Amino acid sequence: MDNILISNHHLEMVLSALEKRLEARKRQRLEQQQQEQQTPTPHRQRIQNFLPPSSDGLFDNDELLTDPSQHTSNDISQDQGWDDTGTSHIISMGVSSAFVKKLKETVELADEAKETLDKYVQASTLAERLTMQYALSLSIQGKINSIVEQREANWKVSSSLKKIITMYAKGYVLSSMARFYISCAPDRIIMNILRSSNVKELPTEEDITGNSILQSSIGRALTNARNQAKDHILSTTSKAQKQVPEDERDLGTVAQALIGDFVDIPCSLALLYRIAIMRGVIDTEPENVVKTAKFWPAVDKEMASRLG
C-alpha cells in the first residue's frame, strides 16, 4: 500500500485556496447587504420616474425629489416634458436655419414678421415660446378691438351728401336712359357716377366700411324715389283709392309732377314711354304685385320685353 505524503508546500496551497473562497463569499454577502440598503423606497422610485436619465446623484437633494418641475434646463436645443404616466421626454427646441429660411419664403412674411419669427426660434425654452405666443394673441385681440372701435366712429353720410344722393336717385328713376330699375344694381351705378363726378365727402375706395355705408344710403334713396314715382302713377289709375283730378292723369302732366323742380331731368318722350310702361303694369297686374316689392321686378320684365 502506497503511502500518501503531503508536503508542507502542498498544504499551504490548499489552505490559501480555502481562504480566497471564504473571502469571496464574504465580499458577496457584503455587497448584497449594501445593495439591499440602497434599494429606493416606493416614494423615491415614483419620483425617479420623473427625472431624466442623466439625473444620477440628485437623490441627495430633497427639494428636487419633492418637486421635479424644479429640474429645468437652459439648453437652447431641448426642453423637458412628462406624460401622464410620469415618463420623461426630451422635447427638441432646435430649428435649422434652412427650415426657417424656407418657411419665410413659403408664407411670404413681411420684414417685421420675419424678425418676430427669428426671436421666436431663438427662444431657449418651451415656456418662453408659449409666452411669446400668448403675447401675440393679446396683440391680435388688441387690433381686433381697435377695428371695432374704428367702425363705431367710422365714416358717415353728411347731410349735404345725403341731399346729393337723393337727387341722383331721383334722377336715375326718371332717367330717359334707364332700362331697368332693380335688375342692374343701380346703387353701384350711382356710386360710380358719384366718384367719376368727383363728389366731395365720399369715403376712400379702400374704406370698405365707409363704402358699404354709402351703398346702403344710395339704396334707401333709390327705394324712396321708386316708391314716390309708383305712388303718384298709381294715383292716376282706377286702382287708386284716391285718384288725382282727371286733367292731371295724362302722361305729360304726370311726368312734370314727378320731375317737379328738378331742372336737370328733361320731360322727354323716352321718359313718357317709361311712365306708360309703369302704368301698364299697374293696370294689368293684381294688387299682390302692384302694392308689394314684386312691382319693380315686373316693370323690369316689361322693360326688357319692350326695349330689348
Automatic annotation (TrEMBL):
Polar residues compositional bias, start-end: 39-52, 67-83
Stretch list, region Disordered: 25-83
Protein name: Uncharacterized protein
